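Troubleshooting: if your tokenizer reports a length mismatch, compare against these two reference records.
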Amino acid sequence: MSENFASFYRKASSVRELVDKAPFPEKARFQITKVIELPAKQYHRYMNELLRDVSFISRNVEDMRFDGKTETFLCLFVTCRDANTGLLVESEGFGYARYAAFIPEKKALVLDGIPVEHANEKCLRQRSVPER
């Protein structure tokens, strides 16, 4: 298994906040336990709402944790089929992205053999404009 490293941030509200923050002194080791694939509109909306409780995180809480022995984040990789990017998420038992890292090029990751969940978050759907 190849080793992967990323800069994780605690309680970032959006991808912009992840990208704009100064990196931690060290990158942390990570291992992806599951890929969460969202529809494109929901994925782009989620990138701006990382502190929102979402069911795909709540459903997969047991697949995420920080392994103190190996100093590795076991995390979800949230993306969409047509995106080149993704987010690593570790919830620390919560229903939101307590720790997150932005991955600008998902093709740099080896995702073969990792389970994929196709999620559809109602809370992330665009709100319809009320009729007048």
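Reference record two:
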Amino acid sequence: MSYRHTRCDVAVTGVGLVTPGGVGVWPSWELILRGESTAASADPELAGLPVDFSCRVPGFDADQLLGRRIAWRQDRFVHLGLVAAREALADAGLDPKSWDGSRVGIVVGNALGGTKLFEEARSTLDSEGAGKVSPVLIPQMGQSSLGGFLSIDCGATGPNITTVTACASGATAIGTARDLLRSGVCDVVVTGGTESAISPTIIAGFHQLGALSKRGDDPAAASRPFDDGRDGFVAAEGAGMLVLERAADARARGAQPLALLSGYGASADAYHPTAPRADGAGVEQAVRMALADAGIPPQQVDHINAHGTSTPLNDAAEAQVIRRIFGDRPVVTSVKGTLGHTLGAAGAIEAVCTVLSVRHNVVPPTANLDSPDPQVQLDIVTKAPRTMPVRTAISNSFGFGGLNAVLVFNAV
């Protein structure tokens, strides 16, 4: 086999979402466009913790959506990703029964794996002994579980990669998938990210780190990206999946691309285990790399789907970089005001949102942005969606360890 190293257009031909806004792209997107917060108080699994609220996926019944035979074998983060992937494949009009699986790759991102299952197993070990720990614990909780199970589900025998770059994992997966298509290794790649890590130990750890919002008296207003009163993120769960193909191949089979994935940039801050560089130098490197890869000057970018976590340091650094590179031209939003922070899935969910903005020429509002930080001098959408031409948009994703990934999407 000879690999083709080209700068061919890569198309997004299908998308899928499972978020705190709902199961499916349209329930999620409609709520995001309304700018409604999904954070709810008194999460029963977090009872007694200093932070006891989160953003959960409502009405998600894995037994009903996947069947009991599949659901019992996997952790919830796999359930979310599998449902989103099936939606993306259906949206792309692809039937796994009819494709050459050796030419189909899977690249998915995840940060923490099956944390709830691990906690339950540890409790069982302590109370009942090693003989009572489930023999399928390891394949259920491993971070590569979605990739492996998705390959079984759709018969994809090509490269199968799980990316782990903290909260940039989903975006890193999409960029890696794009490269598999450009190199000629694959003809189709199912890619994205998934996370369901709202478990007591993880939430306690984030709280001790000082990363979570403490607005327990008003959870719905807790996630407030770029707001002067922001005090941390709200933990969330969800999955976002995309189907990528070379644009020429998609059109040859009669598919209409939703958008083109034209650029990808990645970098490391090389600075601190958790805090971003105050000057955003690492972020700037990734943004400029993505723009150069796409062959697009900064002034051509219409919209930025910001990482915007609602943490004081992250939002300030990201805003500084956006202002330095783009000035005040691009229209900015952060969907974390609505969805909370889905950790390793965030970059993929936000990539889908960016594709939808390009496809439908609309930018959703940033929920809870009532008093903009005076140091954040950006054109941020608030209160209501903004209808406008969106020909070029970027999606920013950053993770602990200073791991950065930036994607550039163009209208078809």
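Descriptive notes for reference record two:
- The two ends are 30 Å apart (CA to CA).
- The chain has a mean pLDDT of 96.
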